[in-house]
């Protein structure tokens, strides 16, 4: 702890508030990213099912999910814009020196963001104004635009982790920039696919969790069953895929960022036959307090054999590696991510076993309780993945080329702390408004469904498709029509 205090004492006063401000805005924005990247894909899957099978329930779900997608995108615009300003305002040293090398990634993300906004507008507009299949095919580029945005962001982040595509002049400024190399860095592939599947997985589990809660509250209709089954099936298929991609990404870190790997695994000295510690706390003398020790497993996971040499934290000076506290934070974040991923595999196997044996979802309440929790757990792992990536890279903002302390703004620390307080207040209001809007939409949809069921007992409440004109009351239905006609459809509130 003493060495950590010494290192912190030698940093600018504004470094801590700048870090806290960036950490808060990133941690808040990243909660929305799974829905921006993956919800369009899940919505279109449901939309395609509705059109192919002429299923009004599937179409109703797709339409309602598209409304949530639009609200979420609007909130994402706010939080994403704040982040774009913070890169330049908080870290001018990095953007000023290295912006010409890796800035294209941010440009790609900006264009994708613009394209996604246009496509979402067309998709929402087209529900009752376009022919069904025309409407669907116009929306197909929407998930591709989301993947394009993820491409830009991960290209920039992977460059910060494994910078390349330039040479340095006598003053240490980058020259001879090779854009292709700057984008496709050694760690880009593993990081990109791990990120994309994580976003799909998280969005699918969260959406399924909403309907799992409905099932637990006694809503056993086809609407809730289908709303649960499709996204949960996507998540169950992707869970083992993500586990393998995560293993590949960790091995890429082992080869390309050995000090970060040492921090996430709490490896103090370079050695072979290195044990794996699940959780535990690193001490200043290199010992580990607490945690579960598994002999030789770290070397086996890194190189498939116990004799694999794993680089330790002490292979570089203390000023060039994460502090004891930072290493412990990165280690816990990584272990939480791995633990949740392992539990999700068990949940996916439970679901697969039920379908193999009974061609049906598991019927027990405990399965749906676990499914409801899975979405929240995935959001936690998204946060943990970001913490592992960013905290494990410390003290470098550009790995082995620029320290965070050299990139920070000259703005007074007091001003940054005040800005942090303002941003927290604004974000609480923004996310509170987002939650209020979504809950209001849920209430309106439920009233619409219950009203349709009461008004038209002979017709399923979700039988009216989102396409075509809205249902109007029969001329004689001012009081009580013979067929129980109603002026509202089950999708009218969407």
Automatic annotation (TrEMBL):
Any keyword Transmembrane? yes
**Localized where?**
Cell membrane
Output the Pfam families linked to this UniProt entry. Answer: Cyt_bd_oxida_I
Alphabetical keyword list = Cell membrane, Electron transport, Heme, Iron, Membrane, Metal-binding, Transmembrane, Transmembrane helix, Transport
The record's annotation in InterPro entries points to: Cyt-d_ubiquinol_oxidase_su_1 (IPR002585)
Regions that span the bilayer: 21-46, 67-89, 101-124, 136-159, 192-214, 226-245, 329-354, 366-388, 416-439
Its lineage reads: Bacteria, Bacillati, Actinomycetota, Actinomycetes, Kitasatosporales
Segments of skewed composition (Gly residues): 482-494
Biased composition regions of type Low complexity, renumbered to the chain:
468-481
| Family affiliation | Belongs to the cytochrome ubiquinol oxidase subunit 1 family.
Annotated region (Disordered), positions in chain: 455-494
Family matches, as PANTHER family: CYTOCHROME BD MENAQUINOL OXIDASE SUBUNIT I-RELATED, CYTOCHROME D UBIQUINOL OXIDASE
Name the record gives this protein: Cytochrome ubiquinol oxidase subunit I
Membrane topology, from the record: Multi-pass membrane protein
Broad class of where this protein is predominantly found = membrane
């Amino acid at each position: 702890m003493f060495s950590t205090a010494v290192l912190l004492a030698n940093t600018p006063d504004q470094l801590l508030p700048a870090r806290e401000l960036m950490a808060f805005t990133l941690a808040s924005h990243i909660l929305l990213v799974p829905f921006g990247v993956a919800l369009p894909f899940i919505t279109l899957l449901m939309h395609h099912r509705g059109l192919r099978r002429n299923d009004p329930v599937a179409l109703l779900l797709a339409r309602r999910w598209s409304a949530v997608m639009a609200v979420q995108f609007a909130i994402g615009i706010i939080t994403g814009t704040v982040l774009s300003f913070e890169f330049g305002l908080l870290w001018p040293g990095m953007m000023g020196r290295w912006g010409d090398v890796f800035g294209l990634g941010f440009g790609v993300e900006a264009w994708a963001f613009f394209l996604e906004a246009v496509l979402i507008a067309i998709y929402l507009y087209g529900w009752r104004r376009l022919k069904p299949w025309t409407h669907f095919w116009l929306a197909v580029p929407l998930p591709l635009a989301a993947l394009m945005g993820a491409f830009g962001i991960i290209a920039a982040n992977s460059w910060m982790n494994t910078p390349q595509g330039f040479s340095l002049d006598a003053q240490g400024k980058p020259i001879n920039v090779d854009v292709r190399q700057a984008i496709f860095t050694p760690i880009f592939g593993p990081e990109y696919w791990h990120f994309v599947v994580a976003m799909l997985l998280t969005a699918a589990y969260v959406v399924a969790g909403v309907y799992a809660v409905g099932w637990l509250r006694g809503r056993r209709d086809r609407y809730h069953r289908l709303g649960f089954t499709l996204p949960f099936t996507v998540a169950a298929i992707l869970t083992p895929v993500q586990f393998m991609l995560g293993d590949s990404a960790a091995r890429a870190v082992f080869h390309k960022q050995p000090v970060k790997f040492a921090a996430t695994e709490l490896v103090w000295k370079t050695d072979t036959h290195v044990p794996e510690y699940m959780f535990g706390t690193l001490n200043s003398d290199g010992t580990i307090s607490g945690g579960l020790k598994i002999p030789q497993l770290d070397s086996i996971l890194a190189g498939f054999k116990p004799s694999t040499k794993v680089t330790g934290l002490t292979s570089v000076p203390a000023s060039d590696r994460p502090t004891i506290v930072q290493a412990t934070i990165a280690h816990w974040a990584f272990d939480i991510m791995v633990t949740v991923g392992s539990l999700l595999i068990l949940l996916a196997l439970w679901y697969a076993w039920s379908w193999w044996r009974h061609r049906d979802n598991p019927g027990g309440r405990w399965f749906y309780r676990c499914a409801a929790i899975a979405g929240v757990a995935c959001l936690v792992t998204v946060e943990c993945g970001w913490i592992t990536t960013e905290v494990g890279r410390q003290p470098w903002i550009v790995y082995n080329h620029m320290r965070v302390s050299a990139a920070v703004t000259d703005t007074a620390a007091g001003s940054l702390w005040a800005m942090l307080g303002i941003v927290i207040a604004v974000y609480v209001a923004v996310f509170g408004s987002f939650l209020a809007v979504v809950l209001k939409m849920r209430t309106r949809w439920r009233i619409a469904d219950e009203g349709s069921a009461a008004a038209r007992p002979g017709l399923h409440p979700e039988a009216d498709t989102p396409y075509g004109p809205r249902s109007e009351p029969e001329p004689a239905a001012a009081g009580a029509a013979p067929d129980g006609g109603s002026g509202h459809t089950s999708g009218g509130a969407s």
